[in-house]
Amino acid sequence: MNQIAIPRRRGNRDAILALLASNRIDRREFLKRVGASGVLMLGGPALLAACGGGGAGGDNELFVDNWIEYIDVADDDSNPTITKFQEATGISVTYTEGVNSNEDWFGKYQPQLAAGQPLGIDLTVLTDYMAARMIRLGYVETLDHANIPNMSNLAAALRSPDFDPNRDYSLPWQSGFTGIGYDIELTGREITSLNDLLDPAFAGQVGLLEGYNDTVPLFLLMEGKDPTTASVDDYVAAAGRIGEAVASGQVRQVYGNDYLDALLAGDLAVALAWSGDIVANQESVPSLRWSFPEEGFMIWNDNMMIPKGAANKANAEAWMNHYYDPVIAAELAAYIWYVSPVNGAREAVADIDPALAEEPLIFPTAELLANSHIVRAFNEEEEAIVNEAVAEAAGV
């Protein structure tokens, strides 16, 4: 199964609308309302702070920094699951969308983290490989599991990653797939293969993703190599092929999360993409399509972590506990369409819409997972070698 015909949510998701009192707004309108700062203005007691700004912290505050379009949003611009958290705990939330890419976020804050300076951020969300780096460097707080009893709902497959075997420092927010997003009006045909990225017909209209955890492994799959077991030399060679595609003009740009803006604007015909992003925007751009490439695709986890020195650590742990309630996890998954890491969410989402419990982008089948891959783990020296090769390929 390569192609997924994803239903648009407005009109055929009445049960979701009834439960969440929320229709999906057009993303361009959403971003216009949010503004260039990337800060969501929450109702009630929410605060406004610049992303990563030096909030003083307090007993009833929480500063969360996440990726774009990774939370539920209602028509009145409120966030239903955040509102429930605030009402249940009395904690005022400032929620920002300052993570454009793992490397961008790390580059921005690493000097402060290395100097032992608080970021003014109590909780952030980063992908496995970056979570591993943050833990290795001592940049995150140790979790108090007693404050997160719902952590017992963590899916068994995610409980003991190599970089955090006891989940002492991280807890998955969502999982998802990296595959191909495209605009069929621009491609003129369905896209089923990673090799389509190199089709001369799309020269200058192809987007790739930053970092070594998405694009490089997919170029390895294009060559018939398993990114889970490929050598460092294999990764470096794949980065070289990416560099050739960039230098030739086949690739328009190597992006962070902002690839989506280029795809929605029509600057890209085809791009490596994250599954939930394409689903979220099919209403505003009905010609968008998602493809699981026939060669294989990547599956990844984004992890909640508390940066070292956070002023409101216990409040961040309360947030984690809230989102591991299966009912809350189901509401979130029903809106953003990423893979929920919470046991019980599938049963709870059936109360929203029974069809969602069978949706492979939220609850993937064993058959689908069999063709998915994870990026291999690197030690510090290996990671530096691969990062250098990827940066050179991207021209940065």
From the structure above, extract its key features.
12 strands; alpha/beta; D-Maltodextrin-Binding Protein, domain 2; twelve-stranded mixed sheet
Provide a descriptive summary of the structure in words:
- The chain is α/β, with parallel strands linked by helices and 396 residues long.
- 34% of the residues lie in helices and 17% in strands.
- The protein folds into two domains: 13-174 and 301-363, D-Maltodextrin-Binding Protein, domain 2 (3-Layer(aba) Sandwich), CATH 3.40.190; 176-299 and 370-394, Periplasmic binding protein-like II (D-Maltodextrin-Binding Protein, domain 2).
- Strands 1, 2, 3, 4, 5, 6, 7, 8, 9, 10, 11 and 12 form a twelve-stranded mixed sheet that branches.
- Helix 7 packs across helix 8 and helix 8 runs parallel beside helix 15 (380-394).
- It is globular, with a radius of gyration of 20 Å.
- Residues 1-56 have low confidence and may be disordered.
β-strand percent reads 15-25%
- The CATH H-level superfamily of the largest domain is Periplasmic binding protein-like II
Helix and strand content put the structural class at alpha/beta
Q: How many individual helices? A: 15
What do the pLDDT scores average to? 86
What's the CATH architecture of the largest domain? 3-Layer(aba) Sandwich
* Span between termini: 36 Å
Shape: globular
Give the SSE order as H and E letters.
EHHEEHEHEHEHEHHEHEHEEHHHHEH
CATH topology of the largest domain: D-Maltodextrin-Binding Protein, domain 2
Helix content estimate: 25-40%
Give the strand tally: 12
Question: What is the CATH class designation of the largest domain?
Answer: Alpha Beta
- Alpha carbon gyration radius: 20 Å
Low-confidence stretches: 1-56
